[in-house]
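A reminder before we start the practical. When you read a complex entry, don't treat the lines as separate problems. The point of joint prediction is that each chain is placed relative to the others, so the output describes one connected object in space. Small molecules and nucleic acid strands, if listed, are placed in the same frame. In the example below there are two entries. Take a minute to note the order of the lines before looking further.
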Amino acid sequence: KQEVTQIPAALSVPEGENLVLNCSFTDSAIYNLQWFRQDPGKGLTSLLLIQSSQREQTSGRLNASLDKSSGRSTLYIAASQPGDSATYLCASSDSNYQLIWGAGTKLIIKP
Amino acid sequence: GAGVSQSPRYKVAKRGQDVALRCDPISGHVSLFWYQQALGQGPEFLTYFQNEAQLDKSGLPSDRFFAERPEGSVSTLKIQRTQQEDSAVYLCASNTMIGDGTEAFFGQGTRLTVV
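Here is the predicted structure of the whole assembly.
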């Protein structure tokens, strides 16, 4: 059974720093891997989706990488801003539709 | 609609009460998913519909949970005889089609508190 783990559970950094969030999964036979953002009281917003055949995806200040062989994905946030404060979740899809989620990393960017 | 809409946003139920949670997916989206998210945890899969067909209900925690999508658009998640452990945020998501590699779009969720 696929297990997805995110480390650290919480992270606090000063504004302007670059940072990396980690996601690991136990079964490399994934269909794709997605990174989401969740704000308190709000739903999930998809940030980046990496297909199993891809190595990385970029959107603005965000870059997500995927290494299936090692069972790892990272989300890189450049030049962090207070508005980036949220919980970041990764999820793998290994059956075309069912997402298996990590518990998330709560990110706080200090002004 | 512009996005996935869920109602109510918040629901407080007395233990033993039945509740119904509604999801309006994005128009034309074939796939619809329900997830349960406990406090401080990632979401967990409950059930999946393709149009009106419920293709996977393996994540439903007990027979008190029931989901339907009779006309292939709006879906309702019903929980009978609610228990305190049912307290969670229930998330609905829709997608154009399974297997096309696109991401699912999520609603804001319904926060259920059973007292």
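Discuss with your neighbour: The mean pLDDT of chain A is 93. What might explain this?
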